[in-house]
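Hello again, I could really use a second opinion on something today. I've dropped the whole record in just underneath, so have a look.
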Amino acid sequence: MMMKQLPHFSEINSYQFVTFRTLDSVDDFLSRLKASTQEKESIKQMKIDAYLDSSKKGRYLNGEIIELVIDHCKSMEPECYQLICLSVMPNHIHVLFEQYKDLGEIIYKLKGGLAYKINKKLNLKGSFWERDYYDKAIRDERHLKATYDYIENNAPKASLKDAKSRFYSRYQ
């Protein structure tokens, strides 16, 4: 099935909410849901996140990999962005940042660097992340707060025992 590529919005100094998932977490159900044209993108993304939260597929982001992910995301400051917060779920990551470079360049460095480090740590080879990613430009302060709260509460909502270690915020 040919997947349609999502359009991406990139504007220097804007705030971005980005989600990307492990390649192994993407199955037929998720592919059909992503390709669906029946629903608004925001509703579709909520359904995808809910599915990923309960899926057992592609769950590599656990234990010491969580700290590896957080450290890598923090290492891209201040060259690429100012990291606001992130949540490392077992098979996907949510990141909120103020971008200082083109979004495509940020995602390339973020996903590429993480794929290299995680593959090396877990002794894996090949593609690690799904090719595409979801991004949403933050419209205003209220949207920023709602997105921050969503990211902060994602792991507790999924009842993950290590939820506290999965969340990073520059404000905590």
Q: What stands out?
A: The longest strand covers residues 81-88. The chain has a mean pLDDT of 91. The two ends are 43 Å apart (CA to CA). The beta strands are 15-21, 81-88, 92-99, 134-137, 167-169.
